[in-house]
Amino acid sequence: MDFGRVTTPELSDIDFKLPAEPVFNKKVLKGKPVKKPLAYLGCAKWGRKEWIGKIYPKGTKEADFLGEYVKHFNSIELNATHYQIYGPATISKWDEKARGMDFKFCPKVPQSISHFSNLVSAGDKTTSFLEGVLAFGSHLGPIFLQLSDKYGPAKREYLYEYLASLPKDLQFFVELRHKAWFEDEAVRLELFEKLLELNVGIIITDTAGRRDLAHMHLTIPKIFIRFVGNSLHPTDYTRIDDWANRIKYWLDKGLQEVYFFMHMHDEATSPELAVYMIDKLEAVCGLHVKKPQFVGK
Asked: Half-sphere exposure (CA, 13 Å, Cβ side) for 28?
């Protein structure tokens, strides 16, 4: 994932500290912890050849990658659906790999809808997409809509109308990248209020070159965090420490579900940082999440 990438020397000059807790979140979190919050952590793709000999056994074939992936993570940010609409037959085959497991697939809305339609007249494609991912059944996690960095607030009525048209029995999150969504306080607060009204989550993206996307606002009592690390640079670990502390604060205030997805510009090292994050979630937050197991250890 190259979004927000900066050069390695620049990392030491960036203030990665997470922003202060927004007052807005008091509208969403009720102030008391829930009894059994859910926690899911994963990566964006299972097809990583770099993981052969690391968490996938040596000699693992591509056809077997998903079967190995589900042994190490309890969720996936499913980017495959961003590039193609898959029917129930294919989705069912993927779902079968997680049979009997507490595992969530979090599919990304196809780019034919999110990037090439302005969210206008996208009903038929959306229906086809949803008919496919519903085959995940109980393994279907939140569905996320990522808009391009060219989709700004001038088109917000299209966005709000599209989100309002989506099925109410499914959980959706939206990721916005155009800087104008966050530069103007009135626009920003209107966005959060509208998502709160629609019961749609707002994704928090933590990447070096776009600190505005680590906005820390919640519009539902669930979080969907896209964390972009930098190949185990020292700042990766201090950032994870900060996240564990913030998640603990939110859990104490009533957060119900955590979805945390690990990205790297070089995905080879994602499992190592995932292990560090999972250990922190257990130590700081008391959350128990499936953890990658390295070959030969």
From this structure: 29
Assigned token pair, 82: 């961003």
Over the Cα atoms of the chain, what is R_g? 18
The string of pLDDT tens digits covering residues 136-168 is: 999 999 999 999 999 999 999 999 999 999 999
Residues 81, 180: Cα–Cα separation, whole Å: 27
Greatest alpha-carbon span in the chain? 55
Residue 293's alpha-carbon distances to 55, 111, 274, 297, in angstroms, are 6, 33, 11, 7
Q: Is the pTM higher than 0.85?
A: yes
Give the tens place of pLDDT for each residue, 248-296.
999 999 999 999 999 998 899 999 999 999 999 999 999 999 999 999 7
